[in-house]
Amino acid sequence: MHQNPLYERILGLSTPWFVSHVDLDEDSGLVECEASASLCCPRCGQPSPRYDKRRRQWRHLDTCQFQTQVVANVPRVRCPEHGCLTIQVPWAEGNSRYTALFEALVIEWLKEASIQAVSRQLQLSWTALTAS
Ligand SMILES: [Zn+2]
C-alpha cells in the first residue's frame, strides 16, 4: 500500500478529504501528512468554487518513533445555494491544534500520570495540558 492511501485509512478520511502528500524529515523526527479536500458544498455536495483557505496544523499520534503533524489548507467554498461555508475537518474539533485521537491519548495518560509526567513524555507544554 502506498503512503497516501495508508494515511487516509489511518486518519479515517473519506470524501471530500484525501491525503495529498506525506513527508518524512528524519533530521527533525517529524512526519508531515498533508490533507486536501475536493471543493464541494458541505451542505449539498455540489462542486463549488473556493472562496478562501486557512492553513492549519494538528499534532496527531506518532508514526512509530516520529512525531506526526496533519496539515491542511482548510477551504471555504461559495455554494450558489448555501453561500460561503467551511469544509470541516473530520480529525479534530473546533480550533484545537490536536487531532481528536491525540487528545484522547492525552486524556488517557492524564488518568495514569501527573501533568508534569505527561507533559515531559508527550513533549507538550503545561499550557497545552491545562487549557481545556
Ligand atoms: Zn450547497
Structure report:
The structure is a single chain. The protein has 132 residues and is an alpha+beta fold. The protein folds into 2 domains: 3-91, no CATH class; 98-132, no CATH class. Helices cover 27% and strands 37% of the residues.
Mean pLDDT: 93
The low-confidence runs, each spanning 5 or more residues with pLDDT under 50, are none
Major β-sheet, in short? 5 strands, mixed
SSE succession: HEEEEEHHH
The fraction of residues in strands falls at 35-45%
Oligomeric status of the shown chains? single chain
Structural shape: globular
Sheet/helix structural class:
alpha+beta
Distance between the termini: 37 Å
Bound molecules: zinc ion
Number of strands: 5
H/I helix tally? 4
Radius of gyration: 17 Å
Number of domains: 2
Helical content stands at 25-40%
Domain Transposase IS204/IS1001/IS1096/IS1165 zinc-finger: 40-82
Protein name: Transposase family protein
Pfam families: HTH_Tnp_ISL3, Zn_ribbon_ISL3
Domain Transposase IS204/IS1001/IS1096/IS1165 helix-turn-helix: 88-129
Topology:
Layout: H1 3-11, E1 17-25, E2 30-37, E3 50-63, E4 66-79, E5 83-86, H2 100-112, H3 115-122, H4 126-130
Zinc ion binds at residues 41, 43-44, 46, 79, 81-82.
Domain Transposase IS204/IS1001/IS1096/IS1165 helix-turn-helix: 88-129
Protein name: Transposase family protein
InterPro entries: Transpos_ISL3 (IPR047951), Transposase_HTH (IPR032877), Transposase_Znf (IPR029261)
Q: Which characteristics define this entry?
A:
4 helices; binds zinc ion; Transposase family protein; five-stranded mixed β-sheet; Transposase_Znf; 2 domains; single chain; Transposase_HTH; 132 residues; alpha+beta; 27% helix; Transpos_ISL3
